[in-house]
Amino acid sequence: MRTRARRTVENALRRFGFARIGGVDEAGRGCLAGPVIAGVVVLDPVRRNTGIRDSKQLTARQREDLYREITSRAVAWAVGGAEAAEIDAYNIRQASFLAMRRAIFALVPLPDFLLVDAFLIPSVLMPQRAIVHGDALCASIAAASIVAKVTRDRLMLDLHAADPRYGYDRHKGYATAEHLAAVARFGYSPQHRRTFRPPSLFDTIDEPA
Questions:
Q1: Is residue 101 assigned to a domain?
Q2: What local confidence, expressed as pLDDT, does residue 198 receive?
């Protein structure tokens, strides 16, 4: 069932005096290739956005339309990323937090409260609340999920244009059968996360020269 994310939590926080409430989410956590991208969105409490929901419940066209609406109407928004090499160096969880911190600290002024999908963000000294399934329930987190997803998809299209062998324009770096077959044929590229290795499929694949 597709449900529209609501502003219930944001409205409650405003009654406690918080004004710049930032929703935070990431895209690309489970991919084999490409960066993890985080988005942060501070929605305007006056200007309404229609149809905001978890980015996974939307088509690519719907996400693009909502991206333009969100970024034009939001009080503030930003994105941050962590590249494949950073994911390998820190692990995907810590790299996701790194991308989130980069997005948050790109905002001036900073948010005064953060709503985050599922987890609290370490080393961020501001009030925050983790909401399980926040991208489906909370409007600002859902907006951040859309901004992160669209930004990452666009980056994957750029990577495809630079190296079309892997089909990033179709699977966006996820471990589809097509993508796995391309890795089996061509080996890893600099965009691949070498720490993400399904053993039954990759134990016999040689590293690229």
A1: yes
A2: 55
Give, for 10, the enclosing helix (H) or strand (E): helix 8-15
Is the peptide bond prior to 109 cis by the omega test (within 30 degrees of 0)?
Answer: yes
Question: Residue 109 corresponds to which tokens in the numbers above?
Answer: 């002024």
- pTM: predicted TM-score of the whole model, two decimal places: 0.93
Task: List Cα–Cα distances, 113 to 83, 117, 120, 130, in angstroms.
Answer: 27, 14, 12, 11
Measured on CA atoms in the order 67, 135, 180, 177, is the torsion positive or negative? negative
Within-domain flag for 204: no
Distances (CA, A) of 1 to 18, 121, 139, 145, 184: 32, 29, 17, 18, 37
Residue 86, domain member (yes or no): yes
Note the maximum CA span of the chain: 59
Q: What is the pLDDT of residues 137-149, one digit of tens each?
A: 999 999 999 999 9
CATH code, domain carrying 130: 3.30.420.10
Residue 80: helix, strand or coil by DSSP? strand
Amino acid of residue 108:
V
Domains in the chain, number: 1
Q: Is 189 domain-assigned?
A: no
